[in-house]
Amino acid sequence: MQNPQPERSVMTLVTTGIFAPSHAGLLAAAGVLARGGMVAFPTETVYGLGVDARDSDAVARLYAAKGRPSFNPLIVHVASIDAAEQFVDFDDTARALAQAFWPGALTLVLPLRADAGISPLVTAGLDTLAVRVPDHPVAHRLMEAFGGPVAAPSANPSGQVSPTKFVHVRDQMTGLIDAIVDGGDCGVGLESTIVATRPIPTLLRAGGLPAEAIEAALGDELALAGETAAPSSPGQLASHYAPKGTVRLNATNIETGETLLGFGAVDAAVNLSPNGDLTEAAATLFDALHQLNALNATRIAVSPIPDHGLGRAINDRLRRAAAPR
Ligand code: TXA
Ligand code: MG
Questions:
Q1: How distant, in Å, are the alpha carbons of 112, 136, 273 from that of 108?
Q2: What is the number of the ligand 1 atom nearest to the C-alpha of 122?
């Protein structure tokens, strides 16, 4: 398997084990985490690349394997609200949101507890920590078997397309990480929605849980990052999710040399949802970008996508895919 990013070719290649999501496979994967190793595993949103969040050496290797800027902090994954309480302080709003949406595609940014024992590399020096409880049986069983906090970014080289299938991880990360748990496809297909609750509930990243659902639970609108004193999400880099080709958004025609990424009833090389279903489009988006890479599409035109519900997160990812690199 070739090394996907040349600047990381100086790294020593490791043998990447592939584990079935069986009892034995998950015990083996938990053992790799306990020894400070890196394990990719499925969640309902995207595949994560996990390490023990208390182990700075492991977190440093993770940043290196992804080629990730170290000012970009990580989400810590735990098995339950109780487990999360060990690491962060919940206010009433946070507790209500956790009870309403965990396990699920919601990440809460909350004050880090002084006694949390989380590596400062995970928070990139911030005094808050991003936490979530994933809604996936394999992720859940892995965390139960490991028994500690798992720091996990998406399991792709930094800046590239996030993985929603085992093969995406295998093709991008083999030789760079210790193990992959093959748990099939991710159902939601977009990363979690990130919310800070202080000083007021603020949307830091649109994601797999529609903002409207959170606003309904709060009975109030979410503020947008930058509008309040809530911390911004340092990882919201303009260029991200980049396929190999250039990307033109809101395309209502196809120009010569372009490949269409369609939505709805259009004649497209790859279609996110021929029926115009946003849930299906979310689940398909990253695989569609991987498919366009496999087709060697050099100029990608993308159909307009409605900007509500999951469409908001889809458009956010597409804008980053289209941003100058
Ligand atoms: O669905 C997901 O969230 C996936 C799966 C694996 O759980 N993970 C994921 O991680 O998308 P990653 O590393 O690709 O994105 C983490 C985001 C970044 O934008 C980062 O800046 C933000 O979370 N973040 C982490 N800690 C933060 C903090 N303390 N304050 C604000 N933003 C934070
Ligand atoms: Mg990511």
A1: 11, 18, 30
A2: 26
The CB of 236 under 6 Å from ligand 1? The reply is: yes
Nearest to 206 by CA among 122, 278, 301, 100: 278
pLDDT tens profile 137-183:
999 999 999 999 999 999 999 989 999 999 999 999 999 999 999 99
CB 197 near ligand 1, within 6 Å: no
Q: How far is the CA of 68 from the centre of ligand 2 (A)?
A: 9
Q: Is 193 in the pocket of ligand 1 (CB under 6 A)?
A: no
Q: In what order do the strands lie in the sheet with 223-224?
A: 17-19, 179-181, 39-41, 48-52, 150-151, 75-77, 128-132, 106-111, 193-196, 202-205, 223-224
Which tens digit of pLDDT belongs to each residue from 243-290? 999 999 999 999 999 999 999 999 999 999 999 999 999 999 999 999
User: For residue 137, how far is its CA from the centre of ligand 2 (angstroms)?
Assistant: 21
C-alpha to C-alpha distance for 267 and 259, rounded to whole angstroms:
10
256: CA distance to ligand 2 center in Å?
Answer: 32
pTM: 0.91
**Is residue 21 within 6 Å of ligand 1 at its C-beta?**
no
Q: Which residues contact 294 (CB under 8 A, 6 or more apart)?
A: none
Residues with CB under 5 A from ligand 2 (ion): 154
Strand partners, 106: 193
Locate the DSSP E strands across the chain. 17-19, 39-41, 48-52, 75-77, 106-111, 128-132, 150-151, 179-181, 193-196, 202-205, 223-224, 246-248, 259-262, 270-271, 299-302
